[in-house]
């Protein structure tokens, strides 16, 4: 890989970890975001930004659970990006996706499935990495629930450090296209309601957290572990409690990304 790497969504949670980690590794990261003059839905500024780029890491995101909106956004943005990559001669396209999106039917996950479909049908050699929810997800979920009472989905997760996912994405981008890479997760299976309660304690706020009973096929699947990797793959080393100690339960995009320790690359 040459030293020019583009990061689509480089201003988001994962992108803000990938960019400095790439720079620390001697690469020249190019952020593809509206704030840098690039619009992935229209293609504005994309051709110029991809000039000389060897690989692209796509961690673009949208905050919606509306199925039509999610499918339209991820489909359009991914197709626009891949067409520009093909014209620019990009060697490798790496997409970050989510474990279990084909087992839990939500509007947002339908958008991610559409993103994967566009990537797999594209002409640019590709790698898709599915990862579990980040440690930050529990706090993000809490922040979306106003008031003194937070009712949290009764789901099972294997949370992983965002900075470890960022490090693994960089490793994948540096190598050849793999197609579907082994799924990545954290070191432990946890219940989301317990994680949110731990965030409440770490932040020192007064809020009651109750589990939301599993409702419908999607809720039952999530509660039964459909969002946990079904097979072997890379596993992060940082536990949720270690993340809490490091961040106090808040997102900390300034922490540098680190590669997954070699001893964690085998089956979990």
Topology:
Elements lengths: L3 E5 L6 H10 L3 E5 L13 H4 L5 E4 L8 H22 L3 E7 L8 H15 L4 E6 L4 H8 L5 E5 L2 E2 L4 H13 L4 E2 L9 E2 H12 L4 E5 L3 H8 L16 H8 L21
Parallel strand pairs: 1-2, 1-3, 3-4, 4-5, 5-8, 6-10
Antiparallel strand pairs: 7-9
Helix pairs in contact: 1-6, 3-4, 5-7, 7-9
Structure explained in plain terms:
- With 268 residues, this protein is α/β, with parallel strands linked by helices.
- It has one domain (4-263): NAD(P)-binding Rossmann-like Domain (Rossmann fold, 3-Layer(aba) Sandwich).
- Helix content is 37%, strand content 16%.
- The strands form three sheets. Strands 2-1-3-4-5-8 form a six-stranded parallel beta sheet, sandwiched between helices. Strands 6-10 form a two-stranded parallel ribbon. Strands 7-9 form a two-stranded antiparallel sheet.
- α4 (107-121) links the parallel β4 (92-98) and β5 (126-131).
- The longest helix is centred in the N-terminal third of the chain and has 22 residues, at 67-88.
- The radius of gyration is 18 Å and the shape is globular.
- The two termini are 29 Å apart.
- 46% of the residues are buried.
- The model is unreliable at 253-268 (pLDDT under 50).
Biggest sheet details: 6 strands, parallel
The share of residues in helices is 25-40%
Give Rg in angstroms.
Answer: 18 Å
Total number of beta strands: 10
Superfamily (CATH H level) name: NAD(P)-binding Rossmann-like Domain
**Overall pLDDT, averaged?**
92
Number of H- or I-type helical stretches: 9
What general form does the structure show?
globular
CATH topology-level fold name: Rossmann fold
Helix and strand succession?
Answer: EHEHEHEHEHEEHEEHEHH
* Beta-strand share of residues: 15-25%
CATH hierarchy: architecture:
3-Layer(aba) Sandwich
| Main sheet: strand order | 2-1-3-4-5-8
Total of domains: 1
Structural class computed from helices and strand pairing = alpha/beta
* CATH class group: Alpha Beta
Distance between the termini: 29 Å
Unreliable stretches covering 5 or more consecutive residues: 253-268
């Amino acid at each position: 890989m040459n030293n020019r790497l583009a990061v689509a969504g480089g201003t988001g949670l994962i992108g803000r970890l990938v960019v400095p980690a790439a720079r620390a590794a001697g690469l020249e990261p190019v952020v593809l975001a509206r704030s840098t003059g690039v619009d992935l839905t229209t293609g504005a500024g994309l051709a110029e930004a991809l000039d000389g780029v060897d690989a692209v890491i796509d961690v673009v995101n949208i905050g919606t659970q509306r199925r039509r909106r999610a499918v339209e956004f991820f489909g359009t943005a991914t197709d626009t990006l891949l067409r520009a990559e093909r014209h620019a001669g990009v060697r490798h396209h790496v997409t970050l996706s989510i474990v279990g999106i084909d087992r839990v039917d939500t509007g947002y996950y339908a958008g991610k499935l559409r993103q994967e479909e566009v990537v797999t049908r594209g002409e640019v050699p590709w790698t898709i990495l599915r990862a579990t929810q980040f440690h930050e997800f529990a706090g993000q979920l809490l922040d979306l629930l106003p008031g003194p009472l937070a009712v949290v989905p009764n789901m099972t997760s294997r949370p992983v450090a965002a900075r470890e996912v960022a490090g693994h994405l960089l490793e994948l981008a540096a190598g050849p296209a793999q197609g579907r890479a082994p799924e990545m997760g954290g070191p432990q299976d946890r219940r989301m309601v317990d994680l949110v309660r731990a965030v409440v304690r770490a932040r020192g706020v007064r809020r009651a957290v109750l589990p939301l009973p599993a409702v419908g096929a999607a809720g039952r699947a999530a509660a039964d572990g459909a969002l946990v990797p079904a097979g072997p793959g890379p596993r992060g080393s940082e536990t949720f409690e270690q993340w809490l100690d490091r961040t106090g339960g808040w997102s900390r995009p300034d922490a540098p990304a680190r590669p997954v320790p070699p001893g964690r690359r085998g089956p979990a």
